[in-house]
Amino acid sequence: MEYAISISPQAERTVKDTTSIPFGVQPTEHMFVAEYKDGQWHNSRIVPFTNLSMSPFALCLHYGQTVFEGMKAFLMNDGHINIFRVDKHYERFAKSLERMCIPVVPKGLFTEALHQLVQLDASWVPDAEHGSLYLRPFVIASEERLGVKVADEYLFMIVCTPAYQYYAQPLKVRVEETYSRAADGGTGFAKCGGNYGGAFYPTKLAREAGYDQVIWTDSNTHEMIEESGTMNLMFVIDDTLITPPLSGTILDGVTRDSLLTLAKELGIPTDVRPVSYKEIQEALEAGKRVEAFGAGTAAVIAPIEIIAIQGKDYNCYIAEDATMYKLQRALYDIRKGIAPDNHNWNYII
Ligand SMILES: Cc1ncc(COP(=O)(O)O)c(C=O)c1O
Questions:
Q1: Is the overall model pTM greater than 0.85, yes or no?
Q2: Same domain assignment for residues 96 and 131
Q3: Using 50, 70 and 90 to split pLDDT, how confident is the model at 1?
Q4: Which of 79, 109, 218, 346 could form a disulfide with 224 if both were Cys (CB 3.0 to 4.6 A apart)?
């Protein structure tokens, strides 16, 4: 099915040097908007980036019916631009929308909107190593109604911002044993706004104690490792890549999935199974080489230098020959078109 998207470009194009601007501050020139009303998506359009006008009665402002995605477009060495794993991001978007009772955006509209927007703002895709254009599709309940209800009207939008290295330094993280990000039967697997709002307070406490992020544990025992901030967690112990399995409380990370696939291809043994913080602690106490890192679209791979477990700081392995950097390189090479894209992960514009 074809989707008609009207395009009203900016009269004057002004691409800024964005290399020193912090992540998420500088929008590109255009944005995509579509409206859902009377059971259908209407009025799909790309317009100059601008503020929204919205009634204070809009349901999204009160009851959290919001879902978003985070994806990236890359400039390849041959000059083409690709969007990484559109299909996998769409699958997750659709699952999140369903969980939040929001009408699912058709895949054709999602893909076409991304394609047209990235094509129009192509000059904003950074040329720098580890630079990319971060793409943020999202849906919000726009119906004007103060009562608690599932909205009948929504906005689907996509905005973009240039992105570079997300974390300047290896991370210091702390295993969280009091607060929970998600519980069984809840919304942990969905990329909905409330999951992030609820995570801020425990993260703030960790920051005040000198850590960058918390490592979330399961809400029942607080022993099993789940994820961290906006990243899935991975470990390398005894040369094996270990990561917790997906569940209702963990986001199905596209980076996690990609790294697991690449690890297998690189001959790195992988073990997807529940991981307790005690197991990590024991390995560290035994003096084993333990790599720990976050995997996510924004940071790609975020090496963890220090893990605090039950109040004690442990050092993880972050030297240059660490396995995580091999995985990072393999992913980078596919996105840049240096290595073959055997899985059709690159959606070429
Ligand atoms: C809570 C959470 N976990 C994990 C991830 C990593 O997912 P991805 O690799 O798809 O960015 C993200 C980021 O999207 C996230 O917000």
A1: yes
A2: yes
A3: low
A4: 218
